[in-house]
Amino acid sequence: MNPYLELFSQHMAEFEAAGSKRDFLEIERVAGRFPAARSHRDGEAAEISVWCSNDYLGMGQHPSVLAAMKRSIDEYGAGSGGSRNIGGTNRYHVLLERELADLHGKEEALLFSSGYAANDGSLSVLAGHIPDCLAFSDASNHASIIDGLRRSGAEKRIFRHNDADHLEELLAAADPDRPKLVVLESVHSMVGDVAPLARIADVARRYGAMTFLDEVHAVGMYGPQGAGIAADLGLADEFTVIMGTLAKGFGSVGGYIAGPATLIEAVRSFSRSFIFTTALPPAVAAGGLAAVRHLRDSETERNRLRANAELMHRLLKERGLPVLSDESHIVSVLVGDESLCRKASDLLLTRHGSYVQAINAPSVRAGEEILRIAPGAVHHPDDVREFVDALDECARQLDVPRVPAGAVPA
Prior knowledge:
Helix 5 packs across helix 10 and helix 14 (338-352) packs across helix 15 (381-398). The protein is an alpha/beta fold. The chain is 43% helix and 16% strand. It has helices at residues 3-17, 63-76, 84-88, 91-104, 115-126, 143-152, 164-173, 197-206, 229-232, 261-270, 272-275, 282-297, 300-318, 338-352, 381-398, and strands spanning 26-29, 36-41, 44-50, 108-112, 134-138, 155-159, 180-185, 210-214, 241-245, 255-259, 331-334, 354-355, 358-359, 370-373. The protein is globular and about 60 Å long. The strands form three sheets. Strands 4-10-9-8-7-5-6 form a seven-stranded mixed sheet, with helices on both faces. A four-stranded mixed sheet has the order 1-2-3-12, with helices on one face. It has a three-stranded antiparallel sheet with strand order 11-14-13. It folds into two domains: 26-55 and 299-398, Aspartate Aminotransferase, domain 1 (Alpha-Beta Complex); 62-297, 3-Layer(aba) Sandwich (Aspartate Aminotransferase, domain 2), CATH 3.40.640. It comes from Streptomyces macrolidinus. Residues 50-391 form the Aminotransferase class I/classII large domain. This is 5-aminolevulinic acid synthase. GO terms for molecular function: 5-aminolevulinate synthase activity.
């Protein structure tokens, strides 16, 4: 065997022996009936219900989104034909950027091929093009934020997760004349807790720091017209740059930033992940635009999401299942063991037809493995009740640790 292939073969064998190999369940979401889907496993197809999708509001199946995408394909074809600065900018890209800027009350917005690319590409410029910039990053920030700050070359300080007091300590210890950038997420992607945005905005303002707020798990779901947590609290103007995604609440794919025109132009001009990649297909931009416009006018989906999340949180707490946070629509049940988490996920799927992916390292730290559940606007309250009963049964069979009813796990 080629020595390089042998090296990787050994590495992956060790990875699999440790129980860390990732499995990818092939599913086909059924248009018009989601969360219903068909799974393909061991050569057999079965109908399942999806409980871990980031399409929180079901906009990936919404008739207005599908119609817009089909219409765009008929008008413009499949792909964009190039990068944004070489023949790839379509009318829908421009309209969507204007819509997103208006949604967040910012001067301009800029589309990226993914949320990861938006964070990585934006932060590498915003932190990297300010001489001697000192970045302050939440300890639990997403990998895309970590990579963007690393690529920027800026010096970095890490503050404890959602700890505004620790952030203030670090800011106070820094040179008052040094440029500063504070980077955080509003809703944490794994735990589901919400950052103390008012306190962080106040601290950043007093120490003269620019702010970059990742709202990927909030846009569409929270705030006036779905503008996010900061807007919900009346704090959108306190954050210099808002970063969001089309891949979750808006049901499609792509990332974006919104902020002052000068900063957006800098990112547009220097971000490698923006410049050197093919633009989103026009149909994707058209679908994203339809989703944003619909959710700016409709509270129906947000109300359903909130009701289902509140119901699931309450039912899980009544059964003593350890939910990490009840602050958002993300419902993370702590299992704390990689093997046990995988078994719980498998049992839910094979016995009850409910698909929830086990989340292990590196998405969470070892020993903090979770079942990350996403009750969406597309679920019925009776579905939520049946799912909790199924999870409770599986947890009892596997002896998943419990906590006193209503308690928050340590």
